[in-house]
Amino acid sequence: xxxxxxxxxxxxxxxxxxxxxxxxxxxxxxxxxxxxxxxxxxxxxxxxxxxxxxxxxxxxxxxxxxxxxxxxxxxxxxxxxxxxxxxxxxxxxxxxxxxxxxxxxxxxxxxxxxxxxxxxxxxxxxxxxxxxxxxxxxxxxxxxxxxxxxxxxxxxxxxxxxxxxxxxxxxxxxxxxxxxxxxxxxxxxxxxxxxxx
Length: 197
Description:
The chain has 197 residues and is of the alpha/beta class.
C-alpha cells in the first residue's frame, strides 16, 4: 500500500538519526513518526492499522491451528520435556477454579461485543475463558473475530483465553446451539456447570 516515493523517503529516514535510534524499524512506523504533514501522517496511520489488524488476525488464526495440531499430535503429552516448565504449568493449571465457556458463531461481531467484554472482564487469575466457535468457523474467521474483540495474541498463547472449534463441547455444557451466544461456568473442583450471571 506504500508508493515508490514512500520507500525512497523511508531509506532516507533510516540513513539518518532514526536509523541509529531505532535500527530495523518497520517502514510504516518510521514514516509515520517522522512525518510532519498531518495528512500524510494520517495516511500512514491508516495503512499501519490495516496491516496490523491483518497481522493479528493471521497470528490468532495460526494459534488456533497450532493448538489443534498439538492436541492431535500430542494429546495430553507436554510439548517439551522440561520439568520446571511442566511444574510451573501444573501450578497454574491447579490454581484454576473455574472455566468459563463462551459459545458463539464467528459472525457475531458487533452484537456480541458487550457480552464478550463483560465476560472477559470477569476472568481472573483463577479462571480461564474458553471460547467455542460453532457452525462453519475456520481458523481465519476465528482470528478475525478475536481481532475484532481486541484479544491480545499473547493472552491466547498464555492460554488465559483459548480459541476452539465447538466440536461437540456444547452438549457437554448443556448449550443449545440455536440460541447463541451462550456462556456457562464450570467449577473445576466439582465439575458442576451453571449459567453465567
